[in-house]
From TrEMBL:
Name of the protein described by the UniProt record: Sporulation protein
InterPro entries linked: GerMN (IPR019606)
Residue spans of biased composition, Basic and acidic residues class: 339-352
Ranges where the record places region Disordered: 339-358
PROSITE patterns in alphabetical order: PROKAR_LIPOPROTEIN
Pfam families (alphabetical): Germane
Sequence ranges assigned to domain GerMN in this UniProt record: 98-187, 248-338
Length: 358
């Protein structure tokens, strides 16, 4: 998932015309129904991220201290089909941005007026939270109201908290407290959390058709959720065999295979999409050489769907050490996106995910 990066880096990424355009993920030209946020500023996490849990303030106080600035933040919310999905919101700029992000996960809280259609907040109404970050670990301390959730939401709540906090570069692991006391298991269904939780635990877990997970490993890929005029990308963690040594190739196999038949998710990859060569990873870039099926139904054999490219970039940059994706078709690199813009440079992950429908 994307990380809060320094403003200079974010600016350079957004300014690069060679990156993807034309879909909600990258804020391109086809997003016509949602006005772009105004006066957006980005957080320099070395200065703005509250690490002591005491200085985070929201609302009017935060606006005054931050000079009425705003910041784009990923909030992991629950859609109508029960998936935990990142939605990028424009929040008041705050010194305690990690704490603020969790406060915007509370039902009947400040997020209510911002929720996209079909989405709901994940934390029980009235929950208060504090966040203390040290040495890559975020301790989220909740009030007693945190325990007042339905059992079926327990995994979703844990995933939403973890993935919301680990979007920040300073956080790799999350530990939970209730009223200042360490929590060894979740309060309703007893999910173990004593060792802390990270993205390695997955999100929207799909273990269908996996008889024994003992010799498997987790890979997170992105499919498409929602409906016409309101599509968005949904991360799903699959279990794949340990015998698949190449995680890049394994992730592409899962993308081509598509979501589970019974799910509400969609996939735009043609079933005969294949890699012509083994993926090559060097200096943070993965190079992929596909057969012509990657172009899908386009008559122009050098054109790649924005959504296919988005899913590739999001899925592969979830893997450690991969920051950008270069695509070729049968060795040719003269590819364009749906708008005809050349993909002459490797495509980097966007700073934020699901900034609007596509």
């Amino acid at each position: 998932m994307s990380k809060v990066t320094r403003g200079t880096i974010a600016g350079s990424i957004l300014a690069s015309s060679v990156l993807l355009t034309g879909c909600g993920l990258f804020g391109g030209e086809e997003v016509k129904k949602i006005d772009p946020p105004k006066a957006v500023t980005y957080v320099d996490d070395a200065k703005e991220l509250d690490t002591n849990g005491d200085n985070g303030k929201t609302g009017q106080i935060a606006n005054k201290e931050a000079g009425q600035g705003t910041v784009k933040t990923e909030l992991y919310l629950i859609d109508k089909n029960g998936y935990v999905v990142p939605q990028t919101m424009v929040l008041p700029k705050s010194e305690g941005i990690a704490k603020q992000a969790l406060e915007y996960l509370v039902s009947n809280g400040p997020v209510e007026e911002m929720l996209p259609n079909g989405f709901r907040a994940v934390l029980p109404a009235g929950t208060e939270v504090d966040v203390n970050i040290k040495d890559g670990e975020a301790i989220a301390d909740f009030s007693k109201e945190f325990s007042e959730y339905k059992a079926e939401d327990e995994e979703r709540i844990l995933q939403a908290i973890t993935w919301t906090l680990t979007q920040f570069d300073s956080v790799q692991k999350v530990k939970l407290r209730i009223n200042g006391h360490d929590v060894n298991e979740m309060p309703v269904n007893g999910t173990p959390v004593s060792e802390g939780v990270s993205r390695a635990h997955g999100i929207n877990l799909d273990v269908q058709n996996v008889a024994d997970i003992t010799n498997t490993k987790a890979l997170t890929v992105y499919y498409i959720g929602g409906e016409e005029d309101n599509y968005y990308y949904v991360p799903v963690t699959r279990r794949v065999s340990e015998t698949k040594k190449d995680n890049v190739a394994a992730a592409i196999d899962e993308l081509v295979k598509g979501p589970s038949y019974a799910s509400s998710l969609e996939n735009l990859f043609m079933p005969d999409v294949k890699l012509v060569d083994e993926p090559k990873v060097a200096d943070g870039k993965v190079t992929l050489n596909f057969n012509e099926s990657i172009t899908g139904s386009f008559k122009e054999k050098n054109k790649v769907s924005n959504q296919v490219l988005d899913a590739l970039v999001l899925s592969l940059t979830e893997q450690t050490g991969i920051e950008s994706v270069e695509i070729k078709v049968n060795g040719r690199a003269e590819l364009v996106n749906e708008e005809g813009k050349p993909l002459s440079e490797p495509v980097m992950r966007p700073e934020k995910v699901n900034t609007g429908s596509f």
